[in-house]
Amino acid sequence: MGAIGQLSFGVYRSGQLWMGGRKPETITPILYLPTVAGGFVSTIVASALGYREWGALFFGAGLFSWLALESIIIHRLYLFEELPKPLRPTLGIQLAPPVVGCVAYLSITSGQPDAFAQILFGYGLLQALILLRLLPWLFQQPFAASYWAFTLGVAALSLSSLRLVERGMTGVMEKLAILLFVGTNIAIGSIALGTVRLLLRGKLIPLPTTGDRSK
Description:
The protein is mostly helical. It is about 70% helix and about 0% strand. It has one domain (about 1-205): Voltage-dependent anion channel (Glycosyltransferase). It has helices at about 1-20, 35-50, 50-80, 95-105, 115-135, 135-140, 150-165, 170-200, 210-215.
């Protein structure tokens, strides 16, 4: 039911996008969620339940949707105005496609991780390094619930490294998996604590301004 639901919404939302008329400033990594995240997560779940053939179909949908959308999103980031501060945490989603895709790909394959799995993980590492480089710029936006956009990608980065080690990779990957596991717990723990703090202060969901209410 979940797979049917995400697929239906992904098809509906993609149809809207194909009709055009979208302004560049509205393009963010959030666009990955309906088809890319949905496709890869459905791959993982289908494979875990024994439906590997269905998982492969969902993987194809997620993979090529990611490749198509990435070019549009990077084009917007390179050439148009910088993201406004409240939207900058959405860049955390940029980390998710390659590493969630890596976990998904490993779920429909077996044996020693092949080159494609390592390629996906390598691109995920690059995204993580770019986001680390951007942290001072991202943190110009005070902590808000929007920082949860980082959690899927951060968790999948660690999980994909653990799965690669589980499937037979050794050496540097073993050390990297430990480092990423520790870093993931620190990152997600910090976001969770920040969220609780906002909740206790009654600021987790900001109230609309007077101008917003008038609209």
